[in-house]
Amino acid sequence: MSNVQKDRILEGAEELFFKAGIRSVTMDEIARHLGMSKKTIYQFYRDKDDIVSALIQKRLEEDKEQMCGIAGKSSNVMEEMINMMKHSEEFFSKVNPILIHDLQKYYPEAWQLFQTFKANVVIDSMQQIMDRGIEQGYVREDIDTKVMARMRVWQIELGFDNNVYPHNEFNSWKVQLQFLEHFIYGICTEKGYQILQQYKNILQHN
Questions:
Q1: Cα torsion for 198, 199, 205, 206, to the nearest 10°?
Q2: Which of 52, 177, 191, 206 is most buried, judging by how many CB atoms fall within 10 Å of its CB?
Q3: Cα dihedral angle (88, 93, 98, 48), rounded to 10 degrees?
Q4: Could you tell me if residue 6 is inside a domain?
Q5: CA dihedral defined by 99, 102, 108, 111, rounded to 10 degrees?
Q6: CA distance 167 to 76
Q7: What are the pLDDT digits (tens) for 89-118?
Q8: Are the C-beta atoms of residues 13 and 31 closer than 8 Å to each other?
Q9: What is the pTM of this model?
Q10: Residue 48 neighbours by CB distance under 10 Å
Q11: Which residues is 188 bridged to in the sheet?
Q12: pLDDT digit string (tens) for 67-81?
């Protein structure tokens, strides 16, 4: 029962964070949203920082599983990147861009979890995708996949930087979509470009 309660608290907090960012949400608001007392929440989490760290850890574990699942059900790397884009759209359509800013500025423990995951999982995964793409003939042989994997992952973070892309002027998902398309077209061979166009046409007509 305790695990059910802990997960329920994280889910309720996530709903509020996605709408308003993290810093502006109080423990009182989380308790009201869940219909439970703060005393009950404190039985499982010592403070909001603890909730944020636990939520990030849970999210990262889920993302790792989903990345493996996408790779397993994709017939080639172009389909894999398209499926990853669709998965990202679901996230970006729900999240308030200020959440990333709050996480970076006010929650260093949780931010470090994200940075470690990015360095140890996401960058390696992106490099492996491009290496497979080269083997399959969809990605150019002349690119340095180690360099490009790091560029791509840091590019995602750049899209959330309010100093570069002010949230009141730019839609976060549209920024990320532009980045992703620019990246994919930049690494594609002619064969990769053709299959990418096929997948895009299918998506546009669904």
A1: 150
A2: 52
A3: -80
A4: no
A5: 20
A6: 35
A7: 777 777 787 888 899 899 999 999 999 998
A8: no
A9: 0.82
A10: 19
A11: 139
A12: 889 888 888 898 888
What is each CA distance from 90 to 69, 75, 129, 157, in whole angstroms? Answer: 16, 22, 21, 17
The string over 181-195, giving b where at least 16 C-beta atoms fall within 10 Å of a residue's C-beta and e elsewhere, is eebbeebbbeebeeb
Unique residue bearing structure tokens 């590019």: 155
Which CATH number is 116's domain given? 1.10.357.10
pLDDT, tens digit, 9 for 90 and up, residues 184-193: 999 999 999 9
Does residue 96 belong to any structural domain of this protein? Answer: yes
Kindly state whether residue 113 falls inside one of the protein's structural domains.
yes
Number of domains in the chain: 1
Where residue 1 falls among pLDDT bands split at 50, 70, 90?
Answer: low
Contact 133/149 with Cβ under 8 angstroms? no
The mean pLDDT of 46-50, rounded to a whole number, is 96
Q: Which domain holds residue 192?
A: 52-204
* DSSP secondary structure of 106-128: H-HHHHHHHHHHIIIIIHHHHHH
